[in-house]
Amino acid sequence: MKNKFMDRDLRSIFTPKIWLLIVVLPHTILGSLYPLTQADVHSNAWTLATFGLLNTVVLLSIYFFTEGKSQARMTAVVAGAVFCWIIMRSIVTDGDDFDITAVLDPPFIYKFSFSIELAPPLILWGILSITGIIHWNGPRDPIQENSENDTHDSTEGDEMSADEEETSTDEEETSTDDETAKLEEMISKGKDLLKRLGR
Predict the structure, then answer these.
(1) Domain coordinates of the chain in residue numbers?
(2) What is the 3-state secondary structure (H, E, C) of the chain?
């Protein structure tokens, strides 16, 4: 009972529809609109800001045009892709955003550096992706599960009643065939009896 409560509470906190809005607002304002007004049209920042606007359109489309399982899966895929894109771009571009170095001689020292400026977008996009993964198979609302069970039971009941109807129809056809055979037998006996009496 406690595990179900905790699971339900976690799922209600990480709802894709809510987190889509939480991500789209700062992403659009800080990651797209503000850089578009400040950056030169031919700069890399301006290009990234236009890509950010494209992400805004995709997120709003997911928010308005999907729901349930489809919304969760689209959220997980798109947010996961943007999350990975941020990391990969930070790795391959020059700068101090993201750096991994390793010394292959003993004592094998690994150095990992990460710019704090990457934390907010990675956290937001990571959580958004997690919300989609948590709801990947749709809602687990007890009321909905009960209604699904009732629907399943009623479907089974309909199938059983259809089977019973087919069985009763087969029995009726069999009894009709038996009655027809008895009538034909009685008629043939009657004809034989009339022939004997006619002699």
Answers:
(1) 2-140, 142-199
(2) CHHHHHHHHHHHHCCHHHHHHHHHHHHHHHHHHHHHHHCCCCCHHHHHHHHHHHHHHHHHHHHHHCCHHHHHHHHHHHHHHHHHHHHHHHHHCCCCCEEEEECCCCCCCEEEEECHHHHHHHHHHHHHHHHHHHCCCCCCCHHHHHHHHHHHHHHHHHHHHHHHHHHHHHHHHHHHHHHHHHHHHHHHHHHHHHHHHHC
| Residues in contact with 34: Cβ distance below 8 Å, sequence separation at least 6, in sequence order | none
What is the C-alpha to C-alpha distance for residues 17 and 89, in angstroms, rounded to an integer? 27
Whether the CB-CB separation of 63 and 99 falls below 8 Å is answered with: no
Helix, strand, or coil (residue 39): coil
Q: Would you state the pLDDT for residue 112?
A: 65
Burial of 97 (0-12, 13-18, 19+ CB in 10 A): middle
**Tokens found for residue 8:** 């339900």
Low-confidence ranges of the chain (pLDDT < 70): 1-8, 95-103, 110-114, 141-173, 199
Which tokens belong to 26? Answer: 């700062």
Bridge partners of 111, per DSSP, are 101
Specify the pLDDT at position 65.
95
Report the pLDDT value the prediction gives residue 22, as an integer from 0 to 100: 95
Give the per-residue pLDDT at 117.
76
pTM of the model: 0.60
